[in-house]
TrEMBL record:
Protein name per the record: Alcohol acetyltransferase
Domain of life, per lineage: Eukaryota
Lineage: Eukaryota, Fungi, Dikarya, Ascomycota, Pezizomycotina
Regions annotated as coiled coil: none
MF GO annotations: N-acetyltransferase activity
Entry-linked InterPro entries: Alcohol_O-acetyltransferase, Atf2/Sli1-like, CAT-like_dom_sf
Pfam families: AATase
Length: 497
């Protein structure tokens, strides 16, 4: 008699913000978030292998419920997290040596290519295998000879499980456990005998749904305005100015994610941070301003009179009294977004900046504007936030289908996951680079900039885009403009020539 296969037990329904991503994944229009960190070994003989990694990774998985759940009924608006009793880490871990290259810059390009590949993969069998993976990437021999201690760990995951900040926190937890494992093996004068199979017979206590622990409130004015803009008769609504957005949303364009890194060295980052403080702004505000300056210089006024951009905002500081304090550090989805408008008069002022001083003035003004907008938004959180209305949408599949063929709302997005923190109790491995990217956003901005950094060290801007929506040349020009503006400021104290 055939043995009956036990179906995974349902846990809780996906919250609206989680369902937002599960629907996109099932439709193939958004697949993963990816955070890659560069790990530096204490010595060439102590680099990360499977026997060393599995015990450390296993402790992270045991401590984080969202890494050991699946998703049932993802093809519906009633998707549910489910209890996965057995997790085989070998299903989630791979090792790869990249194609032969000679320089660190070429190796970084290989990492960018790997990152794009991971973004393009769909998660299969999400009801039985938690949808996340890591890849430990080694440089080829020529690079290893010059940089014998480095390995990159690519962490890619379904956005219904975790947000961008959680990707950084995963690496912080993994580094801590790797260093614990390092000293455990040193004390034992040998290596442990690892297993990849983990058993979880008891259902995990999942982090609460975002809308259960964030006290969203919506004023009547905000509610009426939002519903009118979404549902009111087109003829009666005020005509909206459509900002530049690349190509309109098109589900027929193949899903191919491209990524490109720009690294800024510690001395450059230190000067930028000091100057941002002096000009009453932030790194996020400054890179929005530099992006506006690049777009304004590259795109003609007839094609791009105005722009719009998004900044994701972590909701971790806004947990309400119903939040379980034991789960406050859990990996999860706690995020919203703010939309910035860069109207025609502001863009025209940038295009008309004839001198280095006037360009400099305009860039800092825009950077200050972005910071001021974010401060005002944070000060009123979680009041009048779009997340507070998501529960009223009963059909996310229909919501996204209606977007096909329509203009995008944003010109770009900048998401800053902040500074990586090493919380290890003992020294050992370190992290020297954070490369954070969104997958191609079929219904979102045509270009995304992910920002990650290490304390006192490198800051990396990671550009990502959907192939065919904007050209590689366009993104290369954007990256070159931002690099030259920052380099010029570092050398001369002004962004302009």
């Amino acid at each position: 008699m055939a043995k009956r296969v036990e179906s995974p037990a349902p846990l809780r329904r996906l919250a609206p913000i989680e369902l937002y991503s599960s629907c996109r994944h099932h439709m193939g229009i958004y697949r993963s978030v990816t955070v890659t960190c560069r790990y530096n070994a204490p010595s060439p003989s102590q680099k990360i292998n499977a026997a060393f990694l599995y015990p450390a990774l296993g402790r992270v998985v045991s401590a984080q419920p969202m890494l050991r759940v699946g998703i049932l009924k993802e093809e519906t608006n009633e998707a549910t997290f489910c209890h996965i009793k057995t997790v085989d880490l070998s299903n989630h871990v791979s090792f790869k040596t990249v194609d032969p290259v000679d320089t660190l810059e070429q190796y970084n390009e290989q990492i960018a290519s790997q990152q794009g590949w991971h973004h393009d993969q769909l998660w299969h069998n999400t009801a039985e295998i938690p949808p996340w993976r890591i890849a430990i990437v080694e440089p080829s021999a020529a690079v290893v000879e010059k940089f014998p201690l480095i390995q990159d760990i690519i962490f890619s995951y379904h956005h219904a499980l975790l947000d961008g900040t959680s990707g950084k926190l995963f690496h912080q937890n993994l580094l801590k456990e790797i260093n614990y494992q390092l000293h455990k093996e040193v004390r034992a004068n040998g290596t442990t005998s690892p297993t990849s199979i983990m058993q979880f017979p008891d259902a995990p206590r999942l982090p609460e749904a975002q809308d259960q622990i964030i006290q969203f409130t919506n004023s009547a004015t905000y509610l009426i305005k939002t519903l009118w803009n979404e549902l009111g008769p087109t003829k009666l609504r005020a005509k909206k100015i459509i900002p530049w957005h690349g190509k309109s949303i098109d589900f027929a364009i193949p899903y191919v994610t491209r990524t490109k890194p720009v690294d800024f060295q510690p001395d450059v980052v230190a000067k930028l941070l000091k100057s941002c403080r002096e000009h009453n702004t932030t790194i996020t505000g400054l890179f929005h301003a530099l992006t506006v300056a690049s777009f304004a210089s590259r795109l003609p006024a007839s094609e791009a009179s105005s722009f719009s951009a998004a900044t994701p905002i972590s909701l971790r500081p806004f947990l309400g009294p119903n939040a379980d304090p034991e789960l406050k550090d859990a990996l999860r989805v706690l995020v919203t977004s703010y939309q910035h408008e860069f109207p025609a008069d502001l863009v025209t002022s940038l295009r008309g900046s004839p001198t280095a001083a006037s360009l400099d003035t305009n860039i800092w003004k825009i950077a200050q504007r972005v910071k001021t907008e974010l401060i005002k938004r944070v000060d009123t959180m979680p009041r009048d936030d779009i997340n507070g209305l998501m529960k009223y949408n009963s059909d996310w599949f229909g919501f996204f289908q209606k977007m096909d063929g329509k203009p995008r709302k944003d010109s770009w997005e900048i998401s800053n996951i902040g500074v990586f923190k090493d919380t290890s109790a003992t020294p050992g491995f370190t992290v020297s680079r954070v490369y954070f990217t969104n997958g191609a956003m079929v219904t979102g901005a045509p270009v995304a900039l992910g920002v990650g950094s290490v304390p006192g060290g490198m800051l990396t801007i990671a550009f990502s885009w959907q192939e065919g929506v904007v050209s590689e040349e366009f993104v290369n020009n954007l990256a070159a403009d931002i690099t030259s503006l920052v380099t010029r400021f570092h050398e001369k104290g002004l962004f302009g020539v």
